Amino acid sequence: MSIRSTIILAAGGTGGHFFPAEAVGIELRCRGFDVHLFTDKRTRGFIDSFSGDHVHVISSATVMNKNPFTFMRALSHLMYGACQSFRLIRKLKPCLVAGFGGYPTLPPLYAATTMHIPTFIHEQNAVMGRANKFLAAHVNIIAGGFLKKKGKFAGKIIITGNPLRASVIEASEVPYSKRRGKEDFSLLIFGGSQGATFFSEIVPQALALMDKPTRDRVIITQQARDSDIEKLIKFYKTLGIRAEIQPFFKKMAELIAGAHYIISRAGALTIAEITAIGRPALLVPYPYAIDHDQMENAMVTARLGGIKIIRQEELTSARLLMIIHNAISNPDMLENMATEVHTAGRIGATQELADVAQALATERNRVTLERGICNENAI
After folding, report:
1. Mean pLDDT for the chain?
2. Is 152's pLDDT higher than 60?
3. What residue spans of the chain are helical by DSSP H?
4. d(C-alpha 179, C-alpha 376), whole Å
5. Rounded to 10 degrees, what is the CA torsion of 61, 65, 68, 72?
6. Bridge partner residues of 246 (DSSP)
7. What is the tens place of the pLDDT at every residue in 214-273?
8. Beta-carbon neighbour count of residue 280 at 10 Å?
9. What is the pLDDT of residues 84-136, one digit of tens each?
10. How confident is the model over 198-209, as a mean pLDDT?
């Protein structure tokens, strides 16, 4: 295309929303589009794939109904974000606006639908989030990672899987490294911005119960909140355990590929990356998510023998000790689990969603895509 068409991607400021948008944005840039990102200030710590003039911080807030003052304040932030979005969209003149979940997507997607610009949303989870629920009736297409084609919006839903970053796709080709003899055991633990605290408490308790010869072989890589890091480092040092503790790991795909076993929450992107790379894991769904999306996500993987699912309230330090000890003692079992998990990985989601975006960006292809979805759902 001689003049580059502009596409706006909007995403909340957490990795679960931003990273799928980033993956699709990079693919669309490779296809010749000029891609801008609308987000909130939380992404500043890990954006490195968009230039500064292509990142636009939009006012937004989480809408809570319990406190009327909080509700009104949130509404005012969203209204201001809508004004920002109208102004920027008029300036950028996009051929498509796409949302990847989170409240920062509400203002730009609302503005775009009002201005009759083609739109789609991508829902990573098995349960649609609140922002996407609000937008679902207004957008052209709903792309899903773990969504099922049911409900009143079934006619709009197309299943693409969850977009993966290039580093994850590259790591998906790394074979599982089976432990031999008394080699070290690499244990990776991560829980996202909200779910890491529980692991910072129960994992040290479990390892403290482990016999010293086995414990000496464990190498921990763990994501933790800033407030827990110093305490964890001291505790692991007391136990003689080699550990790297950080609030955020930029090379997470590399860490997943190098792990013998993973303990994590059940976010949609986490599951997509673990299955794409193919590593045995224990998933502990975050129990306080408003929509209980992590439990629904986990149930999608329940048929996989390589992934174990345990509710947080059912996971004691003694039970976790047994799980870790069993993993260390059975390298053949872990290798088989890794193979089974890998079969469920969906590597082509980024390209599939970029195809959807490219089709929506042109009038002729948009009509063809929408008719195709309707015909597919009618079969």
Report:
1. 91
2. yes
3. 15-30, 68-92, 106-114, 130-136, 166-171, 192-208, 212-215, 226-239, 252-258, 268-277, 293-300, 317-329, 331-342, 349-360, 363-378
4. 46
5. 30
6. 223
7. 999 999 999 999 999 999 999 999 999 999 999 989 899 999 999 999 999 999 999 999
8. 25
9. 999 999 999 999 999 999 999 999 999 999 999 999 999 999 999 999 999 99
10. 97
Cα 182 from chain centroid?
35
In the chain, pLDDT over 70 holds for what percent of residues?
94
How many helices (H) does the chain have, and how many strands (E)?
15, 13
Helix (H) or strand (E) holding 36: strand 34-39
- Residue entry with tokens 């390589």: 306
Query: Which tokens sit at 335?
Result: 């290798």
Interatomic CA distance for residues 340 and 345, integer angstroms = 10
What is the C-alpha separation between 373 and 157, in angstroms, rounded? 8
Cβ-proximal residues to 192 (8 Å cutoff; 6+ apart), any chain:
14, 15, 16, 223, 265, 267, 270, 286
| Pairing label, strands 6-10, 157-159 | unpaired
Helix (H, G, I), strand (E, B) or coil at 280: coil
What is the pLDDT at residue 379? Answer: 44
**Closest by alpha carbon to 139, among 110, 105, 102, 104?**
110
* Token pair listed for 358: 């490219």
Q: Which residue in this structure is represented by tokens 């870790």?
A: 324
pTM higher than 0.85:
yes
Q: Would you state the structure tokens that stand for residue 296, as one six-digit string?
A: 């629904």
Q: Helix (H, G, I), strand (E, B), or coil: what is residue 7? A: strand
